[in-house]
Structures are given as structure tokens and as C-alpha cells.
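Hypothesis: this fold can be encoded by more than one sequence.
Test: take the C-alpha cells below, design a sequence, compare later.
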């Protein structure tokens, strides 16, 4: 793809829009536009002006069950001719053939080696080995490094490592293990180009790695049809403390409270997605600065080891 940096920003819905994708691509990585639980074809199309004159590769990331409910999402994504299309969290692989027919390479996230083999059999071009440390939705099954090692031994296509990678040390570790690059989410959430609100940025910048938790309470309260096997890793807050493991207590009042908190950007109640690498996110910087720092620090370590 002609990348200068082995870095892909995770297509985080509500955070990774066209502005962030363009900034990451200009910095030499692969910028991904992310469409999450509330995605529509119109919302995706609204991000394209930011990458239309980019003259650098960019990608698009979709959620499978959202795409299945609105097939136009896939059509709009393919018409944009991204350098990479990722459709994650589903068992139907028919979209792979559609993408290949349109000349678009594809990626999918996997949580174990069985999932990696299924993706390979389906014709996926790039596999994202997402470890349990990752922020947002995913199967919290295996840690990033053990998963990466097992997947690399099992498949022949490029593998990106995801989950808990927030520094040059983490980038160096996965590259040394054999990954083709890193798929980074939390490291980009506080970038100046991210659509993260100022209040959420403050929460992320003050958090440590042990401040995250996997839970389904927000999906249940918001009535998003995420499967029970795909909880999301978020910053622990009052809403999580009250309802995690007690989701039968989530009633109309709790839903109204959550909706009001989200509107008011009150993150004592509203969710903030974050992986266990959040403690390494110490300041709000541009995407170019993040990419440059990660690569420079990783290169120093890799040269020392070699």
C-alpha cells in the first residue's frame, strides 16, 4: 500500500472520522474511517470529503451486524475505493467476494486462531489479531502477544496486532514478533484530529491501564444488538459499577439517565471506550506526532536488539 509507517488507526466509531484518517495517512500510516453501532450510509459519505484529495491510501471499517441491517453501507464504502475495507464481528463472509469484485482488499479482526483460519479460508487479505487488552467491542479471549504468535504460525497473509499497544515499546514488540504492523485505537483517541469530545479526552488522559473494564451494560441500556460474546472495554465509571453483572436492573429510568449523561458529556455515567494501553496516553497531540513518536521509539529499540 506504499505506507511509510507500520501503523493503522483502528476504525473507531464516533472517534475515527475522515479528519483523523487523513492525518494518519499523511503521516505515513493507513488512516481508517470508522463507522460504529449507529452508522448509516449518509454518515459514511459525509466523511469522504476529508480524504477525497488525499493522494494517500485510506481505509474504511464497518461493523458486520450494522452493515447487514443497512446494505447500502457496504455499497457506499466500496464505491469510495478504499485501500482496505475491514468488516468485523460477523460470521457471514459474503462481503469478501463483493469487495474483491470491486478491487478492494479486505481485513477482519479475529480473537483466536480458529477465527483466523476461518477468515483466511474466506479470502481475507489482512488479519487483525485483536487481543483482550483492546478497547471497544471484541471477544476478550486471549492476550495480544500470545494471540499474535499463534495466528502468525497459522496463516500466510499479513497480520496486524491490536490490543494494548500504546507506545514505541509495544510497537517494537509486535514487529519483532512478526506482525506486519499495529492496529492502534486508544493511542489515537486523544489526537487533535479525533472527534473525541474535550470531556472524554480529559477522562482518557487521566486514566491508567487498570481503569478499564469489559462490560455489556451500555449496549443493553442503549438497546444495541451486540452479541453477548462481544462486550466492550470502557473506562470504569458509576454506571458500570451500578449495573455490570446486574443488567436486569437497567430500566427506563436508567436508560433516560444514560441518554441525558451522553447529551451532557457527563462521563461519570456515559461510556468512554479505552484499551488497557490508555495509561500510556499522556497528552493530546496531532496524529502526525503520535505516528512519529511511535516509530522513532520503536526503531531505537529494534536497532538495539538487532
Amino acid at each position: 500500500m506504499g505506507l511509510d509507517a507500520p501503523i493503522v488507526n483502528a476504525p473507531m466509531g464516533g472517534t475515527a472520522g475522515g479528519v483523523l484518517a487523513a492525518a494518519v495517512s499523511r503521516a505515513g500510516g493507513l488512516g481508517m474511517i470508522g463507522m460504529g453501532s449507529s452508522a448509516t450510509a449518509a454518515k459514511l459519505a459525509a466523511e469522504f470529503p476529508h480524504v477525497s484529495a488525499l493522494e494517500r491510501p485510506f481505509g474504511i471499517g464497518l461493523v458486520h451486524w450494522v452493515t447487514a441491517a443497512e446494505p447500502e453501507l457496504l455499497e457506499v464504502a466500496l464505491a469510495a475505493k478504499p485501500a482496505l475495507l475491514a468488516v468485523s464481528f460477523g460470521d457471514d463472509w459474503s462481503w469478501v467476494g463483493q469487495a474483491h469484485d470491486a478491487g478492494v482488499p479486505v481485513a477482519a479482526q479475529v480473537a483466536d486462531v480458529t477465527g483466523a483460519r476461518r477468515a483466511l479460508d474466506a479470502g481475507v487479505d489482512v488479519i487483525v489479531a485483536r487481543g483482550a487488552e483492546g478497547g471497544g467491542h471484541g471477544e476478550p479471549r486471549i492476550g495480544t502477544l500470545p494471540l499474535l504468535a499463534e495466528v502468525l504460525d497459522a496463516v500466510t497473509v499479513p497480520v496486524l496486532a491490536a490490543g494494548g499497544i500504546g507506545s514505541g515499546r509495544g510497537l517494537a514488540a509486535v514487529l519483532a514478533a512478526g506482525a506486519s504492523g499495529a492496529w492502534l485505537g486508544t493511542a489515537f483517541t486523544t489526537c487533535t484530529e479525533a472527534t473525541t469530545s474535550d470531556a472524554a479526552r480529559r477522562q482518557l488522559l487521566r486514566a491508567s491501564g487498570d481503569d478499564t473494564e469489559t462490560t455489556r451494560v451500555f449496549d443493553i441500556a442503549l438497546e444495541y444488538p451486540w452479541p453477548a460474546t462481544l462486550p466492550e472495554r470502557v473506562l470504569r465509571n458509576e454506571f458500570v459499577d451500578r449495573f455490570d453483572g446486574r443488567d436486569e436492573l437497567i430500566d427506563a429510568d436508567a436508560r433516560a439517565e444514560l441518554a441525558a449523561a451522553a447529551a451532557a458529556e457527563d462521563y461519570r455515567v456515559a461510556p468512554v471506550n479505552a484499551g488497557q494501553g490508555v495509561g500510556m496516553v499522556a497528552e493530546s497531540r496531532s496524529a502526525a506526532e503520535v505516528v512519529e513518536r511511535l516509530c522513532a521509539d520503536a526503531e531505537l529499540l529494534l536497532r538495539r536488539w538487532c
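Residues 74 and 272 are 27 Å apart (CA to CA). The longest strand covers residues 58-63.
Hypothesis status: open.
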